[in-house]
Amino acid sequence: MIALSLTEVAQVTGGSVVVPPGLDPGAVVVDGPVVTDSREAGPGGLYVARVGEHADGHDFVSGAVERGAVAALVTRPVEGVPCVVVADTQDAFAALAREVVRRLPGMAVVGITGSSGKTSTKDLLGTVLATAGPTVAPVGSFNSEVGVPLTVCRVTADTRFLVVEMGARGIGHVAYLAEMALPRVGVVLNVGTAHVGEFGSRAAIATAKSELPAALPPEGLAVLNADDDAVRAMAAVTAARVVLVGEAADADVRATDVALDAGGRASFTVHAPEGDRAVHLGLVGRHHVGNALAVVAVATELGLSLEAVCAALESARPVSRWRMEVVERADGVTLVNDAYNANPDSMRAALGALERMGEGRRTWAVLGTMLELGDESDALHAEVGAEVVARGVDELLVVGPAAAALAAGARAASPASGRTGTRVREVTDADDAAVLLDAELAAGDVVLFKSSRDAGLRLLGDRLAGAGEELT
Ligand SMILES: Nc1ncnc2c1ncn2[C@@H]1O[C@H](COP(=O)(O)OP(=O)(O)OP(=O)(O)O)[C@@H](O)[C@H]1O
Ligand SMILES: [Mg+2]
């Protein structure tokens, strides 16, 4: 974090300083990592003690101090540790993040929201911007009321670009995150059906995502997906300039000639105000085209040339784990581990890539449950099952009883003409899937693993890739 004395942290958060006798709080300077997990604490750092359902962060203050944290943000003082005592650590953490951004007026802050692709796009944009200057875009999916201030507090005095992932599980969430990170540029990728169970409807999801463009200042830039009507409509709620990205004819940054190579990697021609250029991505899946267009719009806005952006896009490889991670095994089996998360849209995207990668080969979809789909859950699982059949997947392995509707949907679907159809099998868990796959996988097979936050499937993919032991 940028250097702040304990006195300043107290001022910013409305807290009071409690230090061991004889210590000058103005002389205690936080300039190291700001963490909520004591195991990640380091020299010069600040430990934020959160009180969760299962644990009270105050119990771990001493562990953070042992690792070098110089102070703690707490709701009750901890003996012998320099503390800023506040009424609510969440409010205080948000206020701290906001102040950090305010103190760096030269830093460009980009917010990214959407139902799918936030982390992928954050990673891609982070990779591209890092070619032009110090960039903060942390690996992983830090998109909550805790993840966003953790992200923001990583900046240092020389940070030029800050990329913040913003997730929404309800109305008001993105607005809250935007108040903390104060983005000048906002990207809305899509409004899908992820978390529809919590929101109730797609319209409510759209409202939640629209809070990002709505929060942008008049001198800001809203990058909106032209191919998603619900996102396009957000032009009406923003004071910022709007750049439309997509394949639609009126998109300001547009892709044409989209094709997937035999490895499932997309190529396309990008048409931007600065010119046209052919791009061949190193990432797998057609969905990265839209993500890449958003990156072009943002990075050129922030001063990079179209050529520099496209060159960086082409050399980008997966950053955060379990997102279309491709491993070619020595025995000729190709594994695609996309088991980080799943919703109907990302299932479709991944199955599209599997279809392309599997041309002339035997394809497997090892699929688990999609969480948080509410009343529509069974119907949406069944649709994905039908999609598996429509894509000509040879072997479907449905993992876990909660995904039974997916198997049923596949069994009910009939294959397109000229297709042999899909063999549908159900297994109880990832261990059973492992037994089956170990016995049956053969040279030439392409296997996709995908599910919502199912550590079992991720690790199964890792294990089959030969990396299991270290990762468990
Ligand atoms: N633009 C997109 N449209 C549809 N699917 C996408 C898109 N971009 C990425 N995906 C797929 O969606 C899944 C989740 O990707 P990613 O982790 O980037 O999304 P996220 O929005 O950060 O998700 P979360 O809400 O879990 O943080 C992955 O399987 C990825 O391959
Ligand atoms: Mg994410």
Number of DSSP-assigned strands = 22
Q: Return residue spans where pLDDT drops below 50 for at least 5 consecutive residues.
A: 468-472
How does the overall form come out from the CA principal axes? globular
What helical percentage do the residues reach? 25-40%
Report the end-to-end length measured between terminal Cα atoms.
Answer: 31 Å
Strand order of the largest sheet: 9-10-8-11-12-13-14-15-16
Task: Give a description of the structure.
The protein has 18 helices and 22 strands. It is an alpha/beta fold. 34% of the residues lie in helices and 21% in strands. The strands form four sheets. It has a nine-stranded mixed beta sheet with strand order 9-10-8-11-12-13-14-15-16, sandwiched between helices. Strands 17-18-22-19-20-21 form a six-stranded mixed beta sheet, with helices on both faces. The model is unreliable at 468-472 (pLDDT under 50). Strand 20 (395-399), helix 15 and strand 21 (423-427) form a beta-alpha-beta unit. The protein binds adenosine-5'-triphosphate and magnesium ion. Adenosine-5'-triphosphate binds at residues 114, 116-120, 141, 143, 167, 189-190, 285, 287, 290-291, 323-324, 338, 340-341, 345-346, 349-350.
